[in-house]
Amino acid sequence: MKNLIVIAIAFLTLSATAQDRRQERKGNDHRKEIMKDLTPEEVANLKTKKLTLKLDLTDKQQKKVESILLEQAVDRQNKREEHQNKEEKGKPSKEEFLKMQNARLDSKIEMKQKMKDILTEEQYAKFEKMKPRRHQRRNKRAKRK
Fold first, then answer.
1. What does the domain layout of the chain look like in residue ranges?
2. Helices 40-55 and 59-86, axial angle in degrees (round to 10)
3. Exposed e or buried b for every residue in 42-65, given b needs 16+ CB within 10 A?
4. Spans of biased composition, class Basic residues (predicted)?
5. How far is CA 5 from CA 36, 54, 109, 120, in A?
6. CA-to-CA distance for 77 and 12, rounded, in angstroms?
């Protein structure tokens, strides 16, 4: 009898913690939905402000960074719309996939070069350190699931 009660308590505790984790994931989904509805200008503005706080950008740097981020946001929105239209076709072929990956990497290289031109050496070093953290967080989340 005692064993059954202990097992029941353990089971209830386990199911309660699993539900808490599901609730946390729903919060991220809500954020993604809000971000989808933002215009490219709003996205670029938000990202510029975040970078300004973290890197202590000057007004001149802010304007340059915002123009780069706006360009990226417009491109991302166009690709998202294009992808939604292509969803009916199915998976991309090997050549299409390779082309998409090369384009993505080329844009990353271009972005990195532009940021290097705009930022000071100290700011650029901070900017480079900021990137790996995002990937570390993603990896930690992926391991928890």
1. 1-37, 40-144
2. 140
3. ebbbebbeebbeebebeeebbebb
4. 131-145
5. 47, 53, 60, 64
6. 44
Say which amino acid occupies 85: N
* Contact by Cβ (8 Å): 119, 61: yes
Q: Tell me, what's the pLDDT at 120?
A: 92
Q: Are 66 and 115 in contact (CB under 8 A)?
A: no
Tokens of 55: 């890197």
Kindly give, in sequence order, each residue whose CB lies less than 8 Å from that of residue 41, ignoring residues fewer than 6 positions away: 70, 73
φ/ψ of 108, rounded to 5, equals -65, -45
Taking only the tens place, the pLDDT of each residue in 47-101 is 999 999 999 999 999 999 999 999 999 998 888 888 777 666 677 788 988 998 9
Give me 82's structure tokens.
């294009």
The model's pTM: 0.66
